[in-house]
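Data card: per-record layout.
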Amino acid sequence: MSLQRIYVKQFFDGESFIKNKVLSIENSIIISIDDDLQQYDEKLAGLVAPGFIDLQVNGGGGVLFNNTLSVEGVNAMLLAHAKYGTTAMLPTLITDTVEVMQQAADAIAAAIAQKVPGIIGIHFEGPHLSVAKKGAHSEAFIRPISAQEWQILSRQDLGKVIVTLAPENVLTSDIVKMRELGIHVCLGHTNASYAVAQQAVDAGATGFTHLYNAMSALQGREPGVVGCALLNDNTSCGLIVDGYHVDFASCRLALKAKPKGKVFLVTDAMPPVGTKDTEFAFFDRTVYLHDGKLTSTTGELAGSVLDMATAVRNCVNYLHVPFSEALKMASVYPAKYIGLPAQYGRLVVGSRADFVELNDQQQVTSTWIGGAQLF
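The structure for this 375-residue chain is written out next.
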């Protein structure tokens, strides 16, 4: 790619708001930031911020990852979420057969090999979960780890990998093995006691999937997985700030309890994002959208139609988080958690030119990946 110069009237670099600079971009990377406002190829009048990074995305654009295990499928998901500022994501596989896990891994490996914009890895949400806290996951597919799963998890062509598991159903030695493979282990869909959860953290689990949801609650005599998540300063938590999955007061409590930088935004998004669809097939059920909430025919919440831009606005409007901090929760913090703080989540010399342009209402007006406009 030839040199590209973009004049930004105001941008957030991941730490500070800066005015009137020109970003020089070459081969998807910001190579300089200067004050020469006379020479540029494009001008962005809105606020430019680091692109949003979503580490839990089940679907979008009418696509459910489980059902569309292809490069085309994950690209359609990314394009749907790019409308709302997402520039990097982990397509997330809901508990399914080992054959589907294999196909999902193949699709992600192919997307990364083909340099599909924004696809940086995969999130296996299950299948090693707790039946008692399965949520919308299918009990029929919940199982112990087998040699077949280890073959998939041992691959080195999948980019960044998150595995969500229930520690009461997984050996501590398995968590150690996953960490040795470079996998980010998150606890979720678990009914574990505090002691068992803490044992998993001590073994190398570093995160908690959609905090509060599908995990044993904090109680006076039993802190549960929620207590473990809030108490361990070295762990990170994904948080769905849509007002349906977690009460806004509970979100604020998490932000108060956790060190700054240890809570990041996720959408847990499903196929309707970026479409006008109001229902979709989900395994042997149907999921319906009503008043912004997705509910399965069997009664439970089934993901969300949240997008990252809305999650950022919700943090500002309902959690009373400073705008700069909400932007970090959508970019800087997930980049740090996934182990990509140098390339992603910031707009500095040497980082990727992945950014979102926002208007005064904090709505997305354009989205760029590697200096190319996708939306």
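Known properties of this structure: The longest strand covers residues 17-26. The chain has ten helices and 20 strands.

See the next section for split statistics.
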